[in-house]
């Protein structure tokens, strides 16, 4: 049932970002690498109807959904190795997506309506080895240098040793913890509802909602087409690609906690009570 109550949100104090497909164009590169290996064995290109079920879920690119569709004549392990080899070749080619650099630069000097500095953190399911490949170019390194080292959470971060992958909220809650541990002395800890999560994947949006945070969904145009007419369910975290229980953590359609935008270039600062110095 759609919610008719208009929430009264506190000013945003922290923005937490996914990386792949949101800040950098690695989703297209993941697709390229998969298609190279699929073509090698006479299989068709990966369709978005399947890719949409893989995005944002750790390990899904070599999981059951993919292989049930792909029907490759090689073992899963061999596919995984060939895919990784293509990624080693192509990840260094990745570039920032439109609006990413400007948005991060602006947020690093922004204030909210209460005059508080906006904190930012990175929370990505990418492991260190692939992160190093993806940051080979100077422009990508410069983009991600907007995040302090202690506010950059990768999937093999020791603090995530017992964590669940998205759509569980664990990585976003750790990112918030890392922000709070580095606030200026005497500054009041930031609460989840004072956080804004930026995500491109459907499980990522769900993870943000489960963390009790507001969410900005910035889907690839092909992913947006797959979920046309279901946008409010995505923003509520109620698509349910991966069942993990705890449905009390989810939102309701049109409850005001989520918004979809087509590009980071179109981020509505004023809607979230954020001001950029002129």
How would you sum up this structure, described in words?
GO terms for molecular function: phosphatase activity. This is HAD-like protein. The protein is α/β, with parallel strands linked by helices and about 280 residues long. It has 2 domains: about 15-25 and about 95-270, HAD superfamily/HAD-like (Rossmann fold, 3-Layer(aba) Sandwich); about 25-95, DNA polymerase, domain 1 (Orthogonal Bundle). It is about 35% helix and about 10% strand. It contains 11 helices and 8 strands. The strands form 2 sheets. A 6-stranded parallel beta sheet has the order 4-3-1-5-6-7. Strands 2-8 form a two-stranded antiparallel ribbon. The longest helix has 15 residues, at about 25-40. The protein is globular and about 60 Å long. The termini are far apart.
Q: Which stretches are low in confidence, meaning pLDDT under 50 for 5 or more residues running?
A: none
Helix/strand class: alpha/beta
Overall number of structural domains: 2
Number of helices: 11
Q: Topology as H/E string?
A: EHHHHHEEHHEHEHEHHEE
Name of the top-level CATH class of the largest domain? Alpha Beta
Strand proportion: 5-15%
Summarize the biggest pleated sheet. Answer: 6 strands, parallel
- How confident is the prediction overall: mean pLDDT? 94
């Amino acid at each position: 049932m759609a919610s008719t109550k208009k929430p009264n949100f506190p000013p945003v104090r922290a923005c937490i970002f996914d990386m792949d497909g949101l800040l950098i164009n690695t989703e297209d590169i993941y697709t390229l690498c998969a298609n190279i290996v699929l073509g090698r064995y006479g299989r068709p290109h990966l369709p978005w109807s399947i890719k949409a079920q893989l995005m944002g879920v750790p390990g899904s690119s070599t999981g059951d959904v993919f292989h049930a569709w792909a029907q490759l004549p090689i073992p899963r392990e061999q596919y995984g190795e060939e895919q990784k080899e293509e990624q080693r070749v192509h990840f260094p080619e990745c570039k920032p997506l439109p609006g990413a650099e400007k948005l991060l630069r602006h947020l690093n000097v922004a204030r909210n309506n209460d005059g508080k500095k906006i904190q930012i953190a990175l929370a990505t399911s990418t492991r260190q080895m692939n992160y190093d490949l993806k940051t080979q170019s100077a422009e990508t390194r410069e983009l991600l240098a907007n995040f302090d080292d202690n506010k950059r959470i990768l999937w093999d971060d020791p603090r995530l040793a017992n964590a669940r992958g998205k759509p569980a909220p664990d990585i976003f809650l750790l990112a918030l913890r890392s922000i709070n541990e580095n606030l200026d002395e005497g500054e009041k800890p930031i609460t989840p509802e004072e956080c804004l999560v930026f995500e491109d994947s459907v499980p990522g949006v769900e993870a943000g909602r489960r963390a009790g945070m507001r969410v900005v969904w910035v889907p690839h145009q092909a992913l947006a087409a797959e979920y046309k007419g279901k946008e409010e369910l995505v923003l509520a975290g109620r698509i349910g690609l991966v069942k993990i229980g705890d449905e009390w953590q989810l939102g309701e359609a049109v409850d005001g906690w989520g918004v979809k935008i087509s590009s980071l270039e179109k981020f509505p600062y004023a809607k979230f009570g954020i001001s950029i110095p002129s």
